[in-house]
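A further point concerns the way the authors explain their paired sequence and structure data. The central task, working out the structure tokens from the amino acid sequence alone, is never made concrete. I therefore recommend that a typical entry be quoted early in the introduction. An entry of this sort, consisting of the sequence and the corresponding backbone structure tokens, reads as follows:
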Amino acid sequence: MSTTYTELETSHFVTLAHQGEDYRVHYNDCDPGTGGEVVLMLHGSGPGATSWANFNRNIDPLTDAGYRVILMDMPGWGASDPIINPGSRPDLNAHFVKGLIDALGIARVHPVGNSMGGHSAMAFALTWPEHVGKLILMGGGTGGISSFTPMPTEGIRLVNKLYRDPTLENLRQMMEVFVYDPSDLTDELFQTRLENIHQQRKHLENFIESLRLNPNQYPDFGPRLREVKAETFIFWGRDDRFVPLDAGLRLVAGIQDAQLHVFNRCGHWAQWEHAERFNRLLIDFLGACRKFS
């Protein structure tokens, strides 16, 4: 029987250490009690982003298939503690991913990363490959310059504008570029996202300070893609105005065991814009849910 999970009922915190400091990290744990494998959802970098907001259309199909779904808020986002990052953001996030699965006693996860979450999943797969089952990337995974699109892209410029001036108008401008068809964006979604932004203003200030300290927060993992051993599924939107499609082509060219699915009429949020097809493809890729030995 299908179970519908709520954000509040699945909410948890764990304290993780980094460079001698403790950080309270928030996550949601949707566990159907099957003892099955773990899918770890990793969100993007936009103001007000959380993994629940990024992936709420994907949770129930995965748990119905027997997977335990964990949705992690990185330090600097959601209900997790603020942090200033002067180095590589993906490597910092990967450190906290490792801390979370160690704290929960999980030996292996299937990371699902959107945008910044794709970069974080890639850094985790490169640093701790023994803890990765299959790897799923959407709209992220490696940095570098597009061969066809001026950088920074239109979407990234709007993200940075929203961080510096978090108004409803700037949020609407960003979100209408975020997806292919903005008619699916409701006033409730805008209001919820704006409330998330203003609940933790320190996240905004720290993001801007991090960019000042290190404008290149997302290094290019291109030269290391052949090190990825995990079977990888890459999803992309043909109309992505944040991270253009040629970044996905570089990923599928560099990762030895990878496939790429491109959604037409799709922006930067494939798992949300084409949720039904995305869920079918993802569950088919993961295969029959197996219990841990």
Observations:
- The domain at 11-286 is CATH 3.40.50.1820 (Rossmann fold).
